Amino acid sequence: MLIVFSGLPGVGKSSIAKELAKKTSAVYLRIDSAEQAIRCSNVLRDDVGISGYSACCALAKDNLLLGHSVIADCVNPVCWSRDTWMAVATEAGVAGLEVEIICSDLEEHRHRVESRKVDIPGLVLPDWKKVTENEYQPWQRPRIIVDTAGKTLCCCVDELLQHLQTCD
Q1: pLDDT in tens, the chain (168 residues)
Q2: 70-73: strand order across its sheet
Q3: Do 114 and 128 contact (CB within 8 A), yes or no?
Q4: Cβ–Cβ < 8 Å for 57, 84
Q5: CB neighbours (10 Å) of residue 50?
Q6: What pTM was estimated for this model as a whole?
Q7: Residues of the signal sequence (predicted)?
């Protein structure tokens, strides 16, 4: 199974995706890590474009074909990237599940963005202005939505695990 996380920076995607990967032993792929590695290579210093997504899609497909479940952690803001992930699942012959993480409490979301700590060396986190100006296209198909507002990490992961059990 390919589980693709989507959502604006600071909503709790990475925390939930990492915890879910631990609980399910799925391969965890984070676009931020791939993009920062590309930046650090000095090949594409500033605008890495879709290179991080492309690299992670290829790694996801390789792992899916080996029989591993994969969790992709990304903003996934546009229809093109969402469609690309689902095409990877189809090509690998596995189910693709889309999960959108949101934080409906704007003050809580802003606080998270402004108080985040960098966990990838060299990565520059977006400020609140950039988060709110981020292109994020409306969804065109059903997906699982987890609202992290006022919830603990454990609660959000448990909620998602319940959804996954109904998908089996």
Answers
A1: 999 999 999 999 999 999 999 999 999 999 988 888 888 777 656 666 677 888 999 999 999 999 999 999 999 999 999 999 999 999 999 999 999 999 999 999 999 999 999 888 878 889 999 999 988 999 999 999 999 999 999 999 999 999 988 876
A2: 27-30, 70-73, 2-6, 96-102, 144-147
A3: yes
A4: yes
A5: 14
A6: 0.92
A7: none
Give the number of domains in the chain.
1
Q: 106: domain range?
A: 2-167
Whole-number Å distance between alpha carbons of 7 and 13: 7
Residue whose C-alpha is closest to residue 101's, from 33, 35, 20: 20
The domain that contains 88 carries what CATH number? 3.40.50.300
Based on its alpha-carbon atoms, the radius of gyration of the chain, rounded to whole angstroms, reads 15
Alpha helices in the chain (DSSP H): 13-24, 31-40, 51-65, 79-92, 106-115, 128-133, 153-167
| Of 73, 88, 69, nearest in space to 11 by CA | 73
